[in-house]
Amino acid sequence: MFDYSKLYGKIKEVFSTQEAFADAMEMSRTAINARLTQKVEWKSPEIAKACELLGVPLCESHLYFFSFKSLENQD
Predict the structure, then answer these.
(1) I want to staple 66 with a disulfide (CB 3.0 to 4.6 A). Which of 15, 21, 62, 70 is the partner?
(2) Which residues contact 70 (CB under 8 A, 6 or more apart)?
């Protein structure tokens, strides 16, 4: 499982709401939620666009999209 806590924080910092982020991504709120809850995988072009919108350099995308939850934090 990936840990999207840093991504959630960046979305809140830049867009205030997931809905505003979804609009900027030109995706439905449901589609964004499916990705954030790991029901659907992020596609590479979506990650690149999200990084651009959030002001995250692509070389740091792993910190937001590919961090693993530690075993002690898993449900």
Answers:
(1) 62
(2) 3
Query: What's the start-to-end Cα distance of the chain, in Å?
Result: 10
Q: Residue 44 and residue 69: Cα distance in Å, rounded?
A: 21
Model pTM?
0.88
What does the pLDDT read at residue 71? 64
> When comparing pLDDT for 19 and 74, which is higher?
19
Cα 44 from Cα 56, distance rounded (Å): 14
